Amino acid sequence: MMYYVLIAWILGIAGMGKVWALTGQTCILLATVWLIVQGLLFKFPQLNLQLIRFIQQSLLCLFSFNLAYLYANSALTQRLSLRELTAKPAEVVVHVKSLNQLQSNHIQQQIIVLNDRKQPVKWLAYIHPSSDTSLELGQYYRLHGKVLPAHSYAIAGAFDQEKWFLQQNIMSAFQVQSAEKLTERQLYAMGLISYVRQQQQMVAKILLAIEQQRLTLRNTLQKQSLHHSGLLLALLTGDQSLLSPEVEELFKRMGLSHLLAISGPHVLIFAALLCWVIHRLIIRFAPSWYLRYPKPYLLVIPFCMGVLLYSAFVGFEIPALRTLLTSCILAVLILSKFKLQALQVLLLSAAILLFLDPFSILSAAFWLSYCACLVLLRIYQTLQQQPKQLTLTRYAQLKLYIGILFESQWKIFLALLPLMLIFFQQVVWIAPFSNLLALPWLSLLVVPLSIIATLCLWVIPPLGILLFKLNDLGVSFLLSVLNTGDQIFGSTVQNIAMNGTVMFGLVLGLIILFLPRGVVPKSWSIVCFLPIFILDESQHPFELQVLDVGQGQAVFLQNHDQHMMIDMGGHYNEQKFSVGQQLIRPFLNSKGISDLDQLVLTHLDQDHSGAYFSLRSSLPIQTIYSNEQVQVMPESQFHYCHSGQIWQLDGVKIQVLSPQQQQLIEVPNNQNELSCVLYIQVQNAQPYANFLLMGDAGWEAEYQILKDYPDLKVDVLVLGHHGSKNSSAYGFLQQLQPKVAIASAGFNNRYGHPSQLTQQRLKELNIPLYSTANKGSIRFIQTQDQTVQLHFYRDQQRWLSR
User: Fold this and answer.
1) pLDDT in tens, 367-419
2) Where among 49, 80, 111 does a domain terminate?
3) What is the per-residue pLDDT across 506-523, written as a single tens digit (0 to 9) for each?
4) 739 is in which domain, residue-wise?
5) E-assigned strands of 479-537?
6) How many folded domains does the chain comprise?
7) Are the C-beta atoms of 720 and 694 separated by less than 8 Å?
């Protein structure tokens, strides 16, 4: 019963941000019904006991689920109220109490803002490396700069920055321009005496001292002549400030990125070393203690203290917290002589973690960490079921351990595969083999030696430095082996396109494989895996999405088995942030699409076509159209787009309205005005059947279109040039009178798109305007009754709503 209640609690927390019809009254109703059933069970024991028990347990699980959902969303409501939503200049008083992160082009520093809200809130400050501004740990400052609210690209499959900010309890970003250190007297004059005194308490001082030790360790390693100080630091504390991009990319290609984050084994290694030292001291100086107290009773508290200390040293990351909570639960069970199943302990640990911090549910680390533990637990249970062998030779023991290592790696890889695809849409097929090599080397040699070296730094600094230099040789050997493997196998991160149906089959098949023998025939998993290998020939309904790609334009169109895009967006520097790799590719992967039938680049401005060039070599496209010549891959065909062209997609007619063929020669001097303008008609659709996509065309093209197509019917108008003042003329809008106008524009863009003038024209004509900056991706999808429904991506989660 405990299993189901805990699972219901976890699933209820997972509903954070969803808008479900669950209220406090629902909780009261469920509790009342449960009490009634309990009373019936007590008064009429002759009732069908099994049925009543089932109803009783179901009600308890529903109550747990509902209570968890309300608890999570109550916490979400409170946190959302503290967010900054508008960019603005600001002057803030802050306290620096955590270690900064060094990036290639800026420094990230978490700060506690004291004068912006009624309560202190955490922000993330950005400082340019060339700036004279530096923030010291434990100090207070008055900062001048600009508030930068978190704003995600609201597109399926992309990284959700707003969710990450919430999970980290960061209410805003802040660009620092100048800083002034404040004295304690100045803080008292500002009325901040209460907060200052809180930071002078014992716990706050200990946490600050730990952060200062982390900084000291970073500076010490940075000053030494070590080849891989960044990797040693990352493996030891999770601080990637000194990590070189080459090593980070190598670990990513080899599927080893998880080793750069602090995991449970790191924490356990330190705790085990601490307990071993205490054990040796007891044997040396007080062996009689073991006669009075069992060994587990004596060492369980030091073990938990070691886990707590190292968890604090690495910043209480989720895997470390999982290990800490699990260790504390086991300690209580040992001392109280109470028994729980291993799975119950793991679920209880997850439930307590989510009670303490429900926002952990938003982190991929939570799901990956606990799922990996479940797999290891299943492997342990399998080993326990095997017949015991009284004596094993050393060779047999080594063979057994290697077998366990092999089994654990491929099982963890398979079990985490769905989560990797859900969170990252990527997989590294060589990962089980690279982990098989790197994991023992790092866990048994590098990490323990790094921990010992760090401890020696505080006692005998020269010895600590010597140990780090020896460890540097071990890391160099590992990297040389990994580089050799990388060159031989050409390991790359593989993007995987998989839709919801295929993903469900994969998850179900893996569950069947991991179930104990005899529960379900293992052969059933083959049926679940079949959708992976069968070509998707299902007839998808018509769908058109104006994607949120920031200050740019990208439109996705799907009808039956045909997939096409009109523009792909693009960042002004695709090397710095690739719209193609970070937005378009994950979106297509989430739709289960690995190639396109057609791509129309309305013109070759970077914000419309830049993403194509970053995807050109990895995304097969059958036919590409544009108003200028484009260098395409050999498997693609290129054609100029011009008026008169018509494409039929099973009930969807796509017509090019502009430019005229004779105007193509003028495109280099007038790219925007001669954009490819597309008119899309969906047969028998209501209320949105006719779509007009203007590219970056302005008044001149609009006038020509009205002249050439005076009877044009438009239900949805994607405004020209992102809604600039030189497009969407009043007469053009008045004659077309669309039901909806859409501006594809970036949040807080420097051009002010859509312009106030364009918005005023639309308002006077009573034409609703939706912008991707506020609504995210805007989706039109046809239902079975031919109705085309309008959906906004930002309506899916509360933290995305604007």
Assistant:
1) 888 887 877 777 666 665 556 555 667 777 777 777 777 777 777 777 777 87
2) 80
3) 888 888 887 777 777 878
4) 540-800
5) 494-495
6) 4
7) yes
